[in-house]
Amino acid sequence: MKDQEDRVKKERKVEEVKTLTERLEKAKALIFTEYRGLKVSEMNELRTKLRSENSWFKVVKNRLMKKALKEQGLDSLLADFTGPTAVASSDADPIGPAKVIVNFAKGHEKLVIKGGFMEGARLGADEIDRLAKMPSREELLAKALGSMSAPARNLVGVLAAIPRKLVYAINAIKDTKQ
How many CA atoms lie within 13 A of 139 on its CB side? Predict the structure, then answer.
C-alpha cells in the first residue's frame, strides 16, 4: 500500500516538473516572488489581476522548480528558489505580469520580488520594476501606427492646402474687383 502511494507521489512530482518545464519553454518572462504573510484572499486577488493580463501565478515547490530549471539549462536562476516562492509569467506579453506584480507589491509589502528571467538573462528586482514602467504592447503598437501614419496625414494636409489657398486667392481678387 505504501509503495503504491509513493509511486503515485513520484508520478505527480514528475508530471509537475514536466508542466513547469513546458511553462518555462513558453514563457516570455518569469517573475519570482516571495509571498510569505499574504492572506489567501490577497493571493486570489493577485491571481485574478494576473489572469486579466493573460498571465499565470503559481506557488512552486523549490525542489521541483530547480529540476525544471536544470532541464532547461537555467542554472543561474537556482539561487532565487529559497523560502516560499511563487512564479508569475505570461506566454504573450512580458510587461503585463511585471506591471501587475509591481503595482500589487506597492500595496502589499509582504509580496517581495526576488528576481526574474527574460530573453536568456536573469533580472533583478530593480530591472523588473523598470520593465513594469515600460508601455504595454498595445501602447507601443499604437505609437508605432501613429508614427507610420503621420507622414500620410501630413501629405494629405499639404495637398488639401493647395486648392484651399487657390480659393482664398480667387476670393481676394474678386473682393478687390468689386
Answer: 7
